[in-house]
Amino acid sequence: MWSGCDRQDVGYPRKARVNIPCVSTQTENKNAQKSPFTTKPEIQTEAIKELKRCNPEGRYWILADGTDVKAALLESLRREWNGDVDMQDGKLEELRLTYDKRCSVGSKWKSSQAIERNELVSSLTTELDELETDRQFLAQGLQSAVETFQLKINSPSTPLETLKSLNWDIFEYKTFLEQANVFNQNFEVFIGDLDPVQERPVGPILRSVKKECDAHLQYLLNLYKKKRVCATHVLVFMIADERRNRKPYAIPIQYVPYRSIRDQEVRDFTKKIKEAMVKEDLKVVGTSTDGEFKQLRRIGETHPLHIWQLAHCARDSVGKMSKRTLLQMLEMNGVDAAGQPIVARPNPSIPSEVILQLADIRTNQGMSLDDAITYIRGELVPEGYTPHPFRRDTPESVLDKLQSIVATYQFRADVSYWKECGVDFSKYVYVPEVDPITGETHHERADHNHVLKRIAKHTRDGGSQELTYERFDEAMRDPTTGLTHAALVGTRRQSVPDAEKLLSFHVAKFFREKHYFPEAEYVETIAQWHEASDGRGISQLERCRQNYRMLNYILDEWIPWHRDHDLSTLDINKPINGIRGFSRETVVEVTTNIESQEFRRRQNAVIGFEETPRGSSTDNLECLFSMCHGWLGPVFTLKEFKMKWRKIVREFSKRMDPELPFFCHTLNERFSTDLLPSFDEVPIGCNDNGGDNDDDTDSRNPYRLHRLVRNTREDSSIFAAGRSFLPARNRVSTRQRFHRFDIGLPPLL
Known about the structure:
Largest sheet: 6 strands, mixed
Strand order of the largest sheet: 5-4-1-6-10-9
Low-confidence stretches: 665-670, 688-697
């Protein structure tokens, strides 16, 4: 009753927040049905209008994340479809029209008392053509199902459930193909009997056709379940206020059922959302997704976003060129009147000085062609560094050296071109673009917590050659680190708290005390980077320093000479996969997020307020999915999600309304009716200089990421009697495990 009140007000009746009587569930459902929101996978324009009314001056992020749903293709007695992939491209509607058209023909045969001979012949002939198409589709599907089954059955690691499912697919395709052949034969007989030459009455033939109608309609129902694409995931889009100072601050506006989705398709959906927001004069800051949609952060609508993309395109441009073609770009055939070299195949990206230098060292210094090319190749990187080969772990041939030379100068020409256009890749790894729809700078970011979990996975995989990973096991055995065995081995792969325990300040402190300096630098750098985007109580300047420490930590291995402040001199052949043990996608996402945050920080004075560190976080979507699981259970179908979608949007819209008083309090006070404090505000209980006490192991440390949180059950470094009988979270009882097991698919009889 006193949730959210000050401690001195607890127990005071006048300060109690009692439950308020409300309408019944039936009335609430009726109100949801009357709301302007729809259950279709389309943009909820009414929700955007409500957001405009509540906060017209806000700056908004477009957030996107997906969750899995139970695969289930359904058709109700009213012939309503559910569970299908709907990418808003018209394919589902087109398939539904053909299904309704064929079903209407069968229904007409079944309900007609009399029908003209010519009309019946025409409808049977049309259905025969459709059956021929069905037979081709089923034959191809059967062949594909058999090939897939043979491939999986030869693999010893294939689960039995998968083999059962594939076996059922083969059986169903065979059955439907046999049914199609039977219908084809029967309809040919009917058409032959309706030949006017035979002068047979139509009535008996129509009765024979009617006998086939029920089986034919059931055949169509089963056939189109094979033609329909079953959705296994739902992608939800939300728009969230950048300041995040009043909760709830996000609202869902669209969902997309999909089985697989490309990055460009996600961008197309965000385009439509941006158009709808611009129509209501709402400002769009950027788009934030999880790590699945990697291309969004590499290339934009108008120009490349990341410097890696420029290097990748430059290497691709010469990948298929021959040695002769490349030499024609570099070998000088003469000099024109202006003193510029003449080559057989001019390439404006290659400076004339390089062509003249190649000719000079061959003529005046007597170098062979191979030695001259090797010399030019070595000058592509600063003195003291060895260039990487064009093909990884392969000594360079003359062709490889020529490709490296031409690709490098193509890359530098691209950097120079984009710099003239206002996109300076010589100073920044990532440069956001000006969106053609909004006319404002549009940021593309990856969700910070997803990136943190991915870094924790790379740490567990042991990808870095500089670290000794046995020392993490040593840290787990020390009770002052708070590192548990589950966090070390990644038992809960999607757990952010486990990632924070693995890469915490306490683990870094342990490494420093043990003089494990490479491990200490690695963990402390990542912990500070995480605090810059997720911690409270540190200044904008300190966040900037911690971000750039992480960026420099990556660039020190990627571009060791990056402190010369000219990134155009990078070695384009240096693979970024494996830098600091990270994958290529992780390197791109970390550097993108840092550069994007610092770009936004430089605009603080112009915009008028600082960006909240969690502004682009997709935790709002995680909250929405958790709410769906609370309503619908741990596993739900697309139909169940669809039925709740209107209510979800309506509830979020009500919470956005500042004129609608309500209380929504949870255990950790996630939702509040008051404005939230700034992330830069120092928490109560800190020392005077604004810093935290690293030696304070009390769990009440005001800085969340500096608290030492121990788990007695999971922490093997703490002695606990009866450890196996301590309560464990999220574990069902023995009775539930015995009675609620998954029975799976039946065997094929």
